[in-house]
Every structure is written in structure tokens, then in C-alpha cells.
Amino acid sequence: MKSFNFTSLFLKRTLGSLKRIYAPCRFQHAQNPPPLVVERALRSIKMDTFEAPLVRNFCIIAHVDHGKSTLADRLLELTGAIPKSKENRQVLDKLDVERERGITVKAAAVSMFYPYKNQTYLLNLIDTPGHVDFSTEVARSLSACQSAILLVDAAQGIQAQTVANFLLACDSFMEVIAIINKIDLKEAKVERTIAQIESEFGLQAKNIIQISAKNGTNCGKLLEQIVEQLPPPNYSRTGLLRLFVFDSVFSSSINSTIINVAVTDGIVRAGDKIASKLSGKTYTVLETGIFMYPDRVKTDALYAGHVGYIICDTKHIQDTIVGDTFYHQGVDVEPLQTFKVPKAMVFAGFFPFDEVQYNTFEQSIERLALNDTGVRIVATSNPAFGKGMRIGFLGLLHMEIFNQRLESEFSQQVITTFPGVAYQCRIVGKDNIKEYGTELLTISDPLKWPDTNIIRETLEPIVDGQILTPTQCAPIIKLICDERRGVLKEEYCIDEKRTLLKYKLPLAEIVYDFFDQLKQVTSGYGTFDYEDSGYEKSNIVKLRFCINNEEIDELSVLCHAKRAQTIGKEVTVKLKENIDRQQYAIKIEAKVHATVLARQNIPPYKKDVGAKLYGGDKTRLLKLLKRQEEGKERMRSIANIQVPRDAIIAVLKRKL
Ligand SMILES: Nc1nc2c(ncn2[C@@H]2O[C@H](COP(=O)(O)OP(=O)(O)OP(=O)(O)O)[C@@H](O)[C@H]2O)c(=O)[nH]1
């Protein structure tokens, strides 16, 4: 043992892996656990024996809740990576927010050793999220794999995200095996689901494995099929090193970034000098390793075909760019093809609760964004909240999860402004165009919207939406889409019970509660998927809110003219509820240009404020004045009216 160069913690972990790897009873398919595995585990993980033919890199893709994480649990158990348990654990959903909400938010990579037919295979699995808002995670995971397991719930059949994820895998030219899950359910309709998979995806029924991830039925058979049917990576160790960066996370325990990589060519070891294709910066590799539940395990190296991590002497969080190619310094290579990052759909301003905390706020956002490549960030500022960030998300759930992770993982309490989409406007006038640098502006921040006088036309983002619904719910869904300015493009029956509706819809109409409404009217059976369809001409206005004719900048909203009145009314009422009477009359108005769309009044106190309000009880009055004095810095003075910052926050908290 003396010659082994690892820490006691690593030794413990390795011996833990050894026990797991060596537990013969957990291998359903291996009579004799190969002695090589034992040796490997004792010496840390020596990767050189896992040549490409002994490696399978695959991800599990499916619609929301079809059982990806549960299947990952079973595969980890069957390969001895985790002990067997009757509990529903979903061990790869490690984030607090994933556990609380029961949904996968982050793709998680994990390695397993699987002895099969006198060989030990290294299986690298990536569990992916199912919700459309996290499709970047799926795209990234696919870029590190050669194949995908497409899981379909036997009771629900093919859903919108099953199709979307299958198409993503096809775009990446991947081998896909289809699996039907939840065959234990009474409502399971296995034959119907097989027919759907055959007709929708052209996959053959005889190759579709029927499993119950919950109770393990046929999961062992699936492991065999993973080795038999899925292709190994076709990469060479003798080529020049190329590492594809598909994820990264900042670890506060080591105060460094853990960079997830897929090695496509060559070998990488600790001590290697590597360079980034995107930034041109160079680093020294400090550690290489693989992810084994529950943590990472150091390896001697990573070879072509392996999926694992590296830790480098990166100085700044921004040094790691997901989608980057690393190579040996001085030995230039062609960059690897990177994945397409979807466009941000929803934008909101994020501000620290207290401006003095701006630095930690900024650092937390940067660290979280490193692990969430779907977000787009630019610095901003606001009269009420000071310096902050304007952040673009793939959807509202994405925004909610980001906010929750800021709170739970970074202890950051933040103020967020109304979520909105990015509109476009065409402006006129040579000078104006020169000032803005372009004739067509794309703007998500209402404060940046130009003066109406110089706007020639406005455009809004449109999506192509696919709604899969029980046929009897189609009429009500059509009404909902009409109300949201949708245009029906196609309608057809998928089978005797389900209809597919294809709509063109304004993005602004679907990002808020459309999905919830759809679920409600279809009792949870309706599914929705959408993709960007560019911009179309529209009638977008800037809705402004004023107190005694002075604008409250932070409440301005960009919206379609048709929605302005409803929003205006809601916000003015909410402001009235949150602002106390003062010495002057307060007039709260919602305006588009000079037209008032909604108005609320707050009458002033009578002359003797104290006497009238407190019936001569001067002690209470003094207390009130003292409290007001203390809270002065949390007040915002608008047209000489003291508007508590909390009133503005309360208004911002409402959903559009
Ligand atoms: N009856 C039954 N329930 C299952 C089976 N597999 C998963 N489930 C249940 O289905 C629910 C969703 O399972 P998950 O594994 O979280 O699904 P997921 O696809 O990972 O979910 P997201 O990542 O959030 O999209 C959980 O309540 C599981 O217990 C199965 O084979 N049979």
C-alpha cells in the first residue's frame, strides 16, 4: 500500500467503491466478479484498461416524470454502485430544490462498473431533466454521449417532451433504444405505447424493453442491452488530446471549479498543460477523475472515450466555458462541435435585498450561472434597488428554480422585477439609429424602450407550439389559445383518444400560466412543447405607472396593447393597498403614452394628522414617527410621496 499515492479520504472512498464493486450478490448477471475490478479499485481507479470498446456513454431522456431518475437508481443498484433500497430515492437528484420539488433540474453524470461476459464495462450514465425549461441540460448531456435510452411511461404514452428529446437525439446522430416504463401500473397500456413508439419514431417493437424502474422488473435485461446494443465511443487514445467541456460546477469545499469533460481524443493526466479553444487561456490539470455516487473519485488519467472531470488551476469562474474544447498546450487541434444553446425566453431584473450586499450577490449569481448554462446575464441598475443583474431564462420554471437555488445554495435573498420577454422595435431618424447603433432594437428591459415618437413598428417573439391533448379537451384548449392570440396551424388525431394541435402563439402569452391552465383543463393529461419561431409585427406598448404624475420606473412593463388595461388595473389596485395615506392626496395612474388606462386615489390625512388618527394619543404618534424615521432609508420618494420599498416589492411579486 505504501506506494499508493492517495489520501485517506480517497482510500476510504475507493475501498467503499471496492466493496460496492465486489459485492457479488448485487450483480444479477455476473457469476464471478472479475479480479481485475478488485485490483483496480484498490489502486484507485486505473482507467487505462477501460479501452473504448469497454465503455458505454449514454443518457436517459424522457418526458417529465416518466421515471428517468428512478431507472438511474435501479441501474446503480444492479451494478453495486449503491446499496439496494426499497425507498424511492432518486439519488442523482442531489440539489435541495430537486428533492423538494421531485423534479430533475440538473443533468447528473455517474459512472458504474458492470461485469458482463467475463469483461468489466465502464458505463457512464447521464440522467437528464424532463421539463422543457431545462432542455439545455439535455442538449449538453447528449453532446457527451454516443447513445440515449428513451423512456416512455406505459400509462401516459408518448408526450410532447418525448418527441422533443427524441428529435434532439436524432439531430446528434445517436443510437436510441426505447424502453417502456411503469409496466407495473394498472393503467399501463403497453401495446398501445409500443404502437406509438413504432409509428412515431420508427423503432422496432421487438427491440423495445418493457420495464418497471420502480420494482426493478427487466432492469437487468436492460443493462445487458446497454452493452450489447449501444455503440462504444469510436475515439483514439493515440490522437492529439481533445476534451469537450459539457458542464462545470463551482465547489466551495475546494474553492475551485470541477469541469465535466468527455475525452474524445488522447489522454489527460494531472500535470498536463492544457489550453482552451474559446478563450486561448492555458491551465495546469491538477486532478482527473470520474463521478461515482455519492462523490467524485480521482483517477490516474482519463483516456479517449471516457467521461469524467478535471480540476485545473483556473483563477476565475469565467475561465470555464461550457461547450469549449481543451487541448494540450502548443499542439493545436480542430475544436469539437459544440451544442446549440437555446435562446433565453423570459427576462427579469435581479437585485440584492440590500445594495451593500451587491458583491456577494454578484459572486453567487456568477457561480450559479456556471452550473446553469441556460441563463444569460447583463449588469443593470434601477432607481429603487440600485445595482443588479438582468437575467434571461428558458422559461418561468427555470427562473423560479434559479431564484430558489440562489436562496438555498447561496443564502441570497433577492428582489426580482416582473418577468417579461424581449420585444423588438424599429426606429426612425438617422441620428436615433446612430445613437442606438442599429435600426432594429431587441429590448427586454422596459427602462431601455425608446421614446414612442421614434418607434416605427414593434414586433414580438412568436413560438410554434405543439399541444397534445385528450381529444375531448381540444375545444376548450382552442378557446384558451384564441384568448391568448394563438393561430391554429394544424390539428390531427394521434390515435383514437388524443389530438395534436399545432399553434403559432405569442411567447408572452405562454410564459406565465399557460402550462398550468393546460394541465388544469386536461386533468394533467395535456402536454405542451414549443420552439422559437422568430419575431412578428405586433402592437407592443410601454405601460407606465405614475404617482402624482411622476413615473415609478421600476414598475414599467412592456406588453401587448390588448393586455395593458388589465395589468394597469391590477397594479394600481395593488399599489393603493400598499401605500399609506399621507399629507397630500395621492393619484396612482397606469398610462400608455398620455392615455390613462387605470387610476386609483388615496385621499390625504385631515389637517391635524396626530389628533385625527390617534385621538390625542401622542405616545403612539411619536412611536409611529420614530418608526417612520427608522424606515426612511427603505422609502422611495416619488413626487414628494413616501412610497415604501416593500410596496414596490409587493407589486413586483404578483404574477402578470
Ligand atoms: N408505478 C411506477 N412508478 C414509477 C416507476 N418509475 C418511476 N415511477 C414514479 O414516477 C415518478 C417520477 O419518477 P422520476 O424518476 O422522478 O421521473 P423523472 O423522469 O426522473 O422526472 P423528471 O426528471 O422530473 O422529469 C416517481 O413518483 C416515481 O416513483 C415505475 O416503474 N412504476
Description:
This is Translation factor GUF1 homolog, mitochondrial. One of its GO terms (molecular function) is GTP binding. The chain has 656 residues and is α+β, with helices and mostly antiparallel strands. The chain has 5 domains: 35-229, Rossmann fold, CATH 3.40.50; 242-328, Beta Barrel (Elongation Factor Tu (Ef-tu), domain 3); 346-420, Alpha-Beta Plaits, CATH 3.30.70; 423-538, Alpha-Beta Plaits (2-Layer Sandwich); 542-654, Alpha-Beta Plaits (2-Layer Sandwich), CATH 3.30.70.2570. The strands form 7 sheets. The chain has a 6-stranded mixed sheet, with helices on both faces. A 6-stranded antiparallel β-barrel has the order 7-8-14-11-10-15. Strands 20, 21, 22, 23, 24 and 25 form a 6-stranded antiparallel sheet that branches. The longest helix is centred in the last third of the chain and has 18 residues, at 561-578. The protein is globular and about 85 Å long. It binds guanosine-5'-triphosphate. Guanosine-5'-triphosphate (GTP) binds at residues 62, 64-70, 88, 90, 103-104, 129-130, 181-182, 184-185, 212-214.
Topology:
Layout: H1 8-22, H2 35-42, E1 55-62, H3 68-78, H4 96-101, E2 108-116, E3 119-127, H5 135-143, E4 147-153, H6 160-171, E5 175-181, H7 190-201, E6 209-210, H8 219-229, E7 242-251, E8 256-265, E9 267-268, E10 273-276, E11 282-292, E12 295-299, E13 302-303, E14 307-312, E15 325-328, E16 346-352, H9 358-370, E17 376-382, E18 386-393, H10 396-410, E19 414-416, E20 423-427, H11 430-436, E21 440-443, E22 455-470, H12 474-483, E23 487-493, E24 498-506, H13 507-510, H14 514-521, E25 527-538, E26 540-547, E27 550-551, E28 557-560, H15 561-578, E29 586-592, E30 595-602, H16 609-614, H17 618-630, E31 635-638, E32 641-644, H18 645-653
Parallel strand pairs: 1-3, 1-4, 4-5, 5-6
Antiparallel strand pairs: 2-3, 7-8, 7-15, 8-14, 9-13, 10-11, 10-15, 11-12, 11-14, 16-18, 16-19, 17-18, 20-21, 20-22, 22-24, 22-25, 23-24, 26-27, 26-28, 26-29, 29-30, 31-32
Helix pairs in contact: 1-2, 15-18
Bound molecules: guanosine-5'-triphosphate.
Residues 62, 64-70, 88, 90, 103-104, 129-130, 181-182, 184-185, 212-214 line the site of guanosine-5'-triphosphate.
